[in-house]
Amino acid sequence: MNLLIVDDHPLVCKGIRNILSSEGSFANIMEAGDISTALKLMSEHEFSLALVDMRLKRESGIDFVKTAKRSYPDCKYMIISSSSLPQDFDEAMGADVDGYILKDALPEDIVYAVKSVLRGKKYFDPLFTEKIYSLSRQPAPENPLDQLSLREKEILECLKNGLSNREIADKLYISLNTVKKHVSSILEKLNVNDRLQAVLYANKLFEKDRQDR
Hints:
The chain is of the alpha/beta class.
């Protein structure tokens, strides 16, 4: 499985490459600092995923994604950026990227994001979760639990079992910071104030769902 990192900062490329190489799941990880080099590498190798920075000196990572998608539609494209600006996220969504993760994410978060996208799922930093829902043209789910991502449902199940944030992080092999982000997102989506309310509300919804069947 081949991966391509497109970023004009060599240290960033090296850091991401080291993080992913430590997993041992990827046969070849290559780097490009500009669009022309990236496209040349894509013409010579078959990549499963390209991790692309939003800004490449005077070039646009989104322009690269749009161009590459036309010639290499089987490759998946994820933005990895230091920008959390809504307009940058909107631009990335407009290019139909498969994911968007921030560069300040912890190593285990980056690995999880990459593996999720390679499995055919979309991955977006928890910071953008509510933004995605607001952009959706689909009506809100009748059951609030349907708003939760698979990872959030896993964490909610852990909350129901009385696990602490640290225990959840250890159980799911994710960072403590990621757990905190997901818990905050769960509370917001379920419109509750704390973990106990989330568990009680979820149990009530599960019971209602069983009765409706």
